[in-house]
Amino acid sequence: MSNTTPGKQDGTSTSSKEAQQTIESHKTAATHHTEAAKHHTDAAKHHEIGDPAKAAESTNKAKEHASLAGNSQKEIETQNAKNTKM
């Protein structure tokens, strides 16, 4: 049984460890994007009911999750660059 998975553009394979790291980074980014969206929705609700302080708090939480998602995306880009090198 092979310890590689398809993935490189040049027709070679990426190791299972590399593939798993990329998968985990995608999942982490998705989780943070989901959390950011939730907090933005909460911020909108707080604005609707006239509570700008809670809206600002939710917005700050959303910004933090968006930043964390961005960090995960950078890690994905780094992994992709390593996986596509010969």
Would you summarize the structure shown here?
With 86 residues, the chain is mostly helical. It contains two helices and two strands, in the order ββαα.
Terminal-residue CA separation: 23 Å
Give the averaged pLDDT, no decimals. Answer: 86
Task: Tell me the helix content.
Answer: over 70%
Sheet/helix structural class: mainly alpha
Rg calculated over all Cα atoms: 18 Å
Low-confidence stretches: 1-5
3D structure, described in words:
By secondary structure, the protein is mainly α. It contains 2 helices and 2 strands; from the N terminus they run ββαα. Strands 1-2 form a two-stranded antiparallel sheet. The chain starts with a strand and ends with a helix. The N terminus is likely disordered.
Key structural traits:
7% strand; 77% helix; disordered N terminus; 2 helices; 86 residues; mainly alpha
Write the layout of secondary structure elements.
Blueprint: E1 4-6, E2 13-15, H1 16-48, H2 52-84
Antiparallel strand pairs: 1-2
